[in-house]
Amino acid sequence: MMPTPPDCALGRLASGDPRVRRAIDRAHCILDKPIPLLIQGESGVGKEMFAQAFHRSGTRADKPFVALNCAAIPEHLIESELFGYLGGAFTGARKEGSMGKIVQACGGTLFLDEIGDMPLSLQVRLLRVLQERVVVPLGSVQTIPVEFSLICATHHHLQDAVAHHRFREDLYFRINGLTVTLPPLRERCDVLDLAHAMLKTSAPERELSLTPEVCDLFLRHPWPGNLRQLNNAIRVAVALLEPEETRICLMHLPEELLETDDVMPISAAPAASAQSSDLKSMTLSAIDHALASTGGNVSAAARLLGISRNTLYRRMNAAPVDSRRR
Ligand SMILES: Nc1ncnc2c1ncn2[C@@H]1O[C@H](COP(=O)(O)OP(=O)(O)OP(=O)(O)O)[C@@H](O)[C@H]1O
């Protein structure tokens, strides 16, 4: 499998994690081929961002990317949103009708988020569209030919849903040309890389870093909200930073991160002592992760941790042998 070129949108998705890298490379192999992509993973792992990057990397990049979240709208509305309708097709319908997401996506990409939550009755209709490549809007007898690239995403295990008759097997085989699974953030080894990339995006004009305590917390936190939660934490921290400050420390983080962690709560840790205890409390897991994600490059690991190279060497040498085996 060829590595994804770094100059396309898929290649630019920050990832030092081998599972994500493999998902990117596999998806890149089917770019511009008539193979539907299915993206699995917990909420907030970046499924929609992955789908958008996939769309932007292909020849359809300048065509529409049309998304529909099947879990976010009621059953009767999904039908009209997806297939469109003629004016007056049902009570409350717009006078001028609606072309529907499938027709809007023609020539581009249709992204069906939370496909596992699509009601069974609509699954039959979607299957027909995918097989026959035509849409019949509600209230119409005319067929509209459609051509689009399909990406679906779900946090459900679709094979289980098929086994429990909540998802049609024939539709499952239609939509999973290639399945990629994005791991939850707690299992990724590039949490600090992601945090730094998000820092750059949140404050492009500033040279900001994370204190070792923050790195340590980030590495230990279970991140139930995944990348969405990390991104939110970074945005909050940047907003709370004083203009002259350049280091994100614990006091800048959202409270729920500190409450669910065994780090000393901020109420008991005044800002000054939080700063001075940074280095002492930096655990070896932070150092190990930083070294692992930089391929053992001490200078890069020190930059990632927001400390100098010499300080990192001192910290590594001071580490008791037993604790290094943790
Ligand atoms: N590769 C990435 N780099 C930086 N930030 C990211 C990345 N992927 C996701 N994010 C951040 O996480 C947020 C959630 O991403 P996204 O909506 O793609 O997740 P999702 O898995 O589709 O979530 P859901 O299942 O809840 O719809 C995004 O708004 C973005 O802020």
TrEMBL record:
Keywords: ATP-binding, Nucleotide-binding, Transcription, Transcription regulation. One of its GO terms (biological process) is regulation of DNA-templated transcription. The keyword Nucleotide-binding applies. The keyword Nucleotide-binding applies. Gene3D superfamilies: 1.10.8.60, Homeodomain-like (1.10.10.60), P-loop containing nucleotide triphosphate hydrolases (3.40.50.300). GO terms for molecular function: ATP binding; sequence-specific DNA binding. SMART domains: AAA. Pfam families: AAA_lid_14, HTH_8, Sigma54_activat. Residues 13-239 form the Sigma-54 factor interaction domain. This is AAA domain-containing protein.
